[in-house]
Design goal:
- The longest helix has 18 residues.
- With about 100 residues, the protein is an alpha+beta fold.
- It is elongated.
- The mean pLDDT is about 90.
- It has a two-stranded antiparallel sheet with strand order 1-4. A two-stranded antiparallel ribbon has the order 2-3. Strands 5-6 form a two-stranded antiparallel sheet.
Length: about 100
């Protein structure tokens, strides 16, 4: 297995930054960034994207295809106990919401 991935951002190779410049004099190119795989990104989407910008461009371009993989046809629900309103010592109102473990499926 490789120790790196190439950024999947659809326009990564068009961004004008010095670290993307490759090639010999007279035939330079802008290249997609290489992403080193490590402990920090091993279980994160940043193992496929060099930045939030590249991730957002990818998601914007391919969102319909991504959702088609696992479409959501109905809402998800988590059973809870009746919420209780609690006032803090500073006057803030907090809702105490607890999951009802007896109704978990």
């Amino acid at each position: 297995m490789s120790d790196h991935n190439w950024c999947h951002g659809p326009k990564c190779h068009t961004n004008h930054t010095v670290d993307r410049v490759r090639g010999v004099k007279g035939s330079k190119v802008l290249r997609t960034r290489k992403i080193k795989l490590n402990q920090w990104n091993k279980n994160h989407f940043f193992r496929f994207f060099c930045s939030n910008h590249c991730y957002n461009e990818f998601a914007t371009q391919y969102i319909e295809q991504i959702i088609a993989i696992a479409p959501r046809t109905e809402a998800l629900e988590t059973p809870i106990e009746d919420p209780k309103k609690e006032r803090s010592e500073y006057g803030w109102v907090n809702w105490n919401i607890k999951v009802d473990e007896t109704r978990q499926s």
